[in-house]
Design brief:
Layout lengths: L11 E2 L6 E2 L2 E8 L5 E7 L4 E2 L3 E2 L3 E8 L1 E5 L3 E4 L4 E4 L5 E5 L5 E7 L4 E2 L1
Antiparallel strand pairs: 1-3, 2-5, 3-4, 4-12, 6-13, 7-10, 7-12, 8-9, 8-11
């Protein structure tokens, strides 16, 4: 068993990652050798990722700020306490609104992300 306090996990600047636009910091909360990952992703105001899809289902849980979750048809503003389920293969992007920072916890099993 592993118990994690998000506030105690060091933030890593991941802004150079090609999936992101703007300042983004990532906190690796859980990572297993089999590829299961739980991370908190912290977006500065206006930062986001590019449209992408995963080979796995993904769950996001909003922890801070105001963000946008979008697919190819619509954009939705999300706030703390919102849980988002993104099925495998669905093209989407997510990030902060222009006037707010935004953070979410991402739960991801092993698999690939395709841009």
């Amino acid at each position: 068993m592993k118990i994690v306090k998000v506030m105690d996990v060091k933030k890593r600047d991941d802004s150079a990652n090609p999936i992101f636009r703007g300042k983004v910091e990532v906190q690796e909360l859980v990572s297993t050798p089999q590829g299961f990952r739980v991370t908190q992703v912290n977006f500065s105001p206006g930062a986001r990722n590019i449209i992408h899809a995963h080979s796995f289902d993904q769950v996001l849980y909003v922890t801070e700020g105001r963000g946008i979750l979008a697919d190819e048809k619509a954009e939705t503003v999300v706030t703390p306490g919102t849980l988002i389920f993104i099925p495998a293969g669905e093209k989407h992007w997510h990030g902060a609104t222009r006037d707010s920072s935004f953070a979410h916890i991402a739960v991801m099993p092993p698999g690939e992300t395709k841009f």
